[in-house]
Amino acid sequence: MSISRDIRVGLKGSYGALIRLIFLNVVIWLVLNILISIFSLSKNFSGVEFVSDLVSLPPNIYHFLYRFWTIFTYMFAHFGFMHLLSNMLWLYFLGRVFSDLLGGARMMGTYFIGGLCGGILFIAVENLIPGGSESPPLVGASAGVMAIVVAVAAYSPDYMMFPFGFGMKLKWLALISFILTSVIDLTANTGGKVAHIGGAIFGMIYGTQLRVGKNFLEKFMNIFRYKSGKLRIEHSRSRLSDDRVYNDTKISIRKQVDEILDKISRSGYDSLTREEKAFLQKNHDKF
Q: Which has the higher per-residue pLDDT, 270 or 232?
């Protein structure tokens, strides 16, 4: 199998959506820093300020009206490497859990809507509270990532994770991360923390609704499903000599996936057996 095919397999696998989202953030970070370097060649021109104005979400609502697209661009924009790295690490580890439980399309949709909610709350607080509009422009994936963290914790609060080598329920991990990034020391980067809270609010609402079986955003989430065709797997001629056997196997797998998803909607993810969880993780993105 060639390297290019390995990449295509990864992008269409269980974590394909997560890989594409991380890749997009990294590429945009590279492009922004290259642009800053190019524009900064002129001594009478601030490359940082020019590029920041193009993609950062301004706190002042009147400035925002002239740069309305920044409500979408800010959530993919990073300028510092450590800012990018910290956000992508959180996105990778919690995005994997989200993708396992709820699928990659919902993960991407949650990131996008969480980022919008974070940006909207940021502008609202900065302009409605006296003394607002003094925070720096907003950039970064934090609001979208926080939405993912809180949503998956609200959906499956007792899911066990093992950060730093010891077990912890997902609800406690999400709570600790929220407190550390969004509550403690609100005087530092207040605008960013407000955006985190906006993402967390959406994540809590969405995850709670999914837990009780209400997929009120499913049509929107379907926008993020990969639709360029199913991955074509190469099989030996002998294994596919009988197409009916192959098709019957696919139908059987799909039926089992549907039955497991129905069980989750009725009783929650934690009601699944270990074998059912492994089977769902392996096959849920095939349909």
A: 270
